[in-house]
Design goal:
Layout lengths: L1 H6 L1 H20 L5 H25 L7 H20 L5 H26 L7 H19 L5 H43 L1
Length: about 190
């Protein structure tokens, strides 16, 4: 199971890079209109969701918890499509969409980390990324009308931190996958 999970390390790297790119765009253009933010957010959620679904489906049948990544990805795809097709939504609706998405993704990341804790070293990175998502979601629920610029800054900083955590996790997964592959290669030499 760990081989299947770590084999798809690159999907976590891509999700991390997307999150960082989105965060930088949000910080560089904090005065952007909510429609522009919705389009950026929609693209990020849609692509991140697709990568999460790919990673989850790649481990289906061999991992009993594959569905958590698929569920996380589907939530991102749905919210991404809503943000793209309805960019004129009011500020509060977009904030609550992001808050709900962040809390759901955060809990799914934490759940996944506990499921693989015996199979991958330092799953704490995955737990931290999940906690960051939950904290951002809660902050957005508590302070929904903090102004567009404040919301953009919160989302931007969170996205960069979340992206860094995902990339660190993917590097750890890649290292684990390589060690598994090296072990497989050496064991086949013994046969």
């Amino acid at each position: 199971m760990i081989e299947l999970f770590t084999k798809n390390w690159w999907t976590f790297t891509l999700r991390g890079l997307l999150a960082i790119a989105f965060g930088i765009l949000a910080l560089v253009w904090p005065g952007a209109t909510i429609a522009v933010l919705a389009i950026f957010l929609g693209i990020y959620l849609l692509l991140g969701g697709i990568f999460a679904v790919v990673a989850g489906l790649a481990t289906s049948g061999k991992n009993s918890r594959w569905w958590t990544l698929v569920l996380e990805g589907l939530a991102g795809i749905i919210l991404g499509l809503v943000a793209l097709f309805f960019p004129g939504l009011t500020e509060e609706i977009i904030v609550f969409m992001v808050a709900i998405w962040a809390v759901v993704v955060g809990f799914l990341e934490i759940s996944s980390a506990f499921q693989i804790r015996h199979e991958i070293a330092n799953e704490v990175i995955m737990i931290i990324s999940g906690l960051l998502a939950v904290i951002m979601g809660i902050l957005l629920f508590v302070f929904p009308i903090g102004g567009v610029v404040s919301i953009v800054w919160i989302i931007g900083v969170f996205s960069i931190a979340f992206g860094i955590a995902l990339i660190l996790l993917s590097l750890r997964m890649r290292r684990t996958w390589r060690s598994i592959k090296i072990g497989d290669d050496s064991s086949s030499d013994d046969i």
